[in-house]
Structures are given as C-alpha cells and as structure tokens.
Design a protein that fits this description.
Helix content is 37%, strand content 20%. By secondary structure, it is of the alpha/beta class. It has two domains: 171 residues, Rossmann fold (3-Layer(aba) Sandwich); 67 residues, Pantoate--beta-alanine Ligase, Chain: A,domain 2. The longest helix is centred in the middle third of the chain and has 16 residues. Bound molecules: pantoate. Pantoate binds next to strand 2 and helix 8.
Amino acid sequence: MKHAKTIAELQASLVPLRGGATVGLVPTMGAFHEGHLSLFRAAREECDAVVASLFVNPAQFDKGTDLAAYPRDEARDTRLAAAAGVDILFAPTAEELYPPGFQTWVEVEELGWTLEGRFRPGHFRGVATICLKLFNIVQPDRAYFGQKDAQQAAIVRRLVRDLNIPVEIRVLPTVRDADGLALSSRNVRLSAEQRRQAQALPLALATRDPNKARELLEGLEVDYLEVADFEPRVLAGAIRLGDIRLIDNVLLEDAVPGFNLAPPTEKGVT
Ligand code: PAF
C-alpha cells in the first residue's frame, strides 16, 4: 500500500494504476472499524484500484471540543487499510486541503438543513465541500459510504446529481455490534453504563414506528426521531449520552435500484 500525504503524491501514485482501470474511493475520517472495512472490501471487489482517504475534516465539526475528542490512530489505520487491500492511503494535513485563503464552499441546501443539520450547523457544508474536493482530487469511478450516515449519503448523492459529478455513489449497509449498536468511531468513548443506555436506540428504530420508538427512548436525551425520505425512506434518530452524540437509522422501504445497496453497474466489475 502506498501512503500519500500530498495531493501531488496521491496523483503521481494513481497514474500507473489508472489507464482504463476503475478507481474506487472510500472517504473516511479514520479510527477504522468493521464498518469502514466493509467499504474497503466492497471497493476492492468492485474496482481495480482502491484509494482510501483519512482526513479528520475540521470543516464539518461545529464544536472544537468534538474535533479534539475525535479518536485518531494513524498507525493502526494504516495497518488495517493495507490488510483490507487498499492500494493508496491518502492522509493529508489540514493545510494541504484548506490552504491559506481558502474560501469556496458547497452547500446542499434543504437536505442539509434538516435533522442532523439542525443540531450541527455547517456540518453538511463541510461534508459536501470535502467530498467534492476528494472527488476532484481522486477522480474515482465509484465512491463508498455507509448507510449509517443516511443523511450524509443522501446529501452526497444530491451533490453528485446537482453538479454532474461523474462518480457512482455506493452506499453499504450499517454494520452492527452483537448488542445491536451501529458501529461508530464515537462508541469507544462510551462508558459501560452509556453503552447499555445506547442500546435503546437500535431497539427503538427496529420497531420502524416513530411513536413506539419514542416510547422506547423515554428518559434519554433525544435530538430527533423522524421518518426521512432519503431515497430510500428511513426512520432516523439521534441521542445524546453525556457529550457523545449517536445517530442511527433503519430502512423503511427497499433500496432504490442504482443507488443504495444495489449491485454495482457493469462498468469495471471484476
Ligand atoms: O463519514 C465520514 O467519515 C465523513 O463525514 C466523510 C464522508 C469522510 C467526510 O469527511
């Protein structure tokens, strides 16, 4: 696996891999867990070359404390990415992606203002901007995201359609621990008691009924619990346990062919 710190290094490493080959991009913020690994494996299966980006994007954190608390372990992530068959790990500095004078942002408007957007102002502007930058830098044929961040996936698909970006967005199912909790880099910060309380969220969502779900979440700090039409429709929720926010969702209808959870298109399938 090649390790690129700069855009120039990344692009130089991609030259010999391209030439008609399909390139898959898995954008991440590191602290890899089985959810990330499932994206790497899918990209490995469906593309000739796999690029993973590892960048804790400051622009998508509205609170400095959340950014500082985000778990980081680049040495471990490097080992896991290599073992999962990633060809190039792109781990730039913040200055590389946001050099002095940076002032261009992309915003997916209404979709980005609901649910998570109400509680994390500016978050999706940061996500949409970094995804567009990564798409331009890597120029992948496919990019991989997790269904756990259903609103993020919907926003990225909208961005790609609205700005005619030539990339296929692949969204893969949420990976859960044995106790039902959706894997998240934030889970490591939960105490044993918080972890027990957190299990109410997947249990509530599994009812697929907002009223029943709200009952099951009584006593917890719930930011929202709503049905959202993210194509496919989901029941999505966010809870707070101390200073940790957890989000999760379940599908309420089958995935839309060509978008979520669908087999990849013929192009470049090995
Ligand atoms: O889901 C994430 O880890 C991030 O939001 C993403 C897509 C890598 C953009 O920074």
